[in-house]
Amino acid sequence: MNLDFNQLKESLLNSGEKAFRAGQIFKSLHMGLDFDNMTDISKELRQKLNEKYISQSIKILQSIKAQDGTEKFLFSLKDGNLIEGVLMRYKYGNTICISTQVGCRMGCAFCASGLEGLVRNLEPAEMLGEIVSVNAYLGGGLKDKRQITNVVLMGSGEPLDNYDNVIKFLRLVSDEHGINISPRNVSLSTAGLVPQMYKLADEGLPVNLTVSLHSPIDEERKKIMPIANAYSIAEIIKACDNYFEKTGRRFIFEYVLIKGNNDTPKHAQTLIDLLSKKPCHVNLIRLNEVKENQLKSVADKDAYRFLGLLERGGVSATVRRRMGDDIEGACGQLRRRYLKDYNKKEI
Ligand code: SAH
C-alpha cells in the first residue's frame, strides 16, 4: 500500500472507522501481514480494505544464501516483473540492498541491471515491500524486534531517476508508526543526477549520499557512464558540497576498479587532486565481472595498491569487502538468470 500514515487514517475515517485503526493496520502492514491475516480487525473491515487496497505488493520468489551469510532475494511484483535485493549480515546488524526500478536506463558499461534498459519505476510500497518481506522472512517484527538495521538503495535502478517515489518511500520507511528506520541508516547511491542531488538536500531527509564516480576524468567517465555526458565531475562535486552544507552528512564515492581502465597511478593522483580536501570517503569496489561485457576486475593486490596511493594522498578510502562471492554477484544477474532458465517473459 502506498498510503502514508495520515492518508490511511483519513481513508479509514472517511469510511466510518475509528482513528486508532490506522495505527493497528499500518503496523500490521509493516510486519508483512496481508489484510486477511489481520485478526485484530473485523472481517468486514478486512474485506473493505481488500476491495480498495493491495496489502503486500511484492513477495519473495526465491532466495539464495552464500557461505558468508549474504542472501540474495528474487521478488515478484503484482504485474509479473521481477526485482532483486541482497541481505548482508554484519556484526552490528543486517543491511538490505534494495532495487528502486525494474531495469535501469543509465546504461553503465559494467552493470548488468541496465542491459535491457528501464522497464518501469518501482512504487513506494514496492521498495518498502522489499524490506518488510525480508524482515518478516527473518522472523523480525517492529521496534526492538526489527531484524533490518540499515538500508542501501544500491540495487537495480537509479533512485534519483525515480525521484518522487523514492522520496515517498524514504518517508514511509522512516515513519515512527511503521518499520521506522532512520534516514541516517539509509544510503542512497546515484550515478550523479545533479539537479536531483540538490533537491534531495532540501527534503529534510538526511540520508547518506553515495555517488558512483568510477573515473576522475570526464572524458573517460563518459565512456563507461553515459550520464557523464549530462553532468561533469565538477558539477557533481559541487552538488555533494551543497549536500554536506545542508545535511552535515559526509558523502561517499563509489569507485569500481576496472583493469586497465581506471586503475592507474594517474587516476589515483587525479582523485587525490579532486577529493583530498573534501569531507568524503572513497569506496573501492572490485568489479564483479558480468559475462555480457569484456571488462575485467583488478587483482586484489592492485586494488590495495590503489588504496595505498589514495591514503598517502590524504583521501579516506577502503576496499569494499567481497560478500556473497559464491552466489550471483553483480546487480541484475540473478533476475537475468531466472528469466533465462525458466524462459520467462516479463509482462
Ligand atoms: N544507479 C545507482 C545505484 C545502483 S548501482 C548508482 O549508479 O549508484 C549501485 C552500485 O553498484 C554502483 O556504484 C554501481 O557502479 C555498482 N555496480 C554495478 N555493476 C557492478 C559490477 N558489475 N561490479 C561491481 N559494482 C557494480
Describe this structure in words.
With 347 residues, the chain is α/β, with parallel strands linked by helices. It has 2 domains: 1-56, DNA polymerase, domain 1 (Orthogonal Bundle), CATH 1.10.150.530; 57-346, TIM Barrel. Helices cover 34% and strands 19% of the residues. The strands form 2 sheets. Strands 1-2-3-4-7-8-9-10-11-12 form a 10-stranded mixed β-sheet. Strands 5-6 form a two-stranded antiparallel ribbon. α1 (5-14) crosses α2 (20-30) and α9 (265-275) packs parallel to α10 (300-312). It is globular, with a radius of gyration of 21 Å. The model has no long low-confidence stretch (mean pLDDT 93). The structure holds S-adenosyl-L-homocysteine (SAH). Residues 106, 110-111, 154, 158, 189-191, 212, 254, 256, 285, 287-288, 290, 330-331 line the site of S-adenosyl-L-homocysteine.
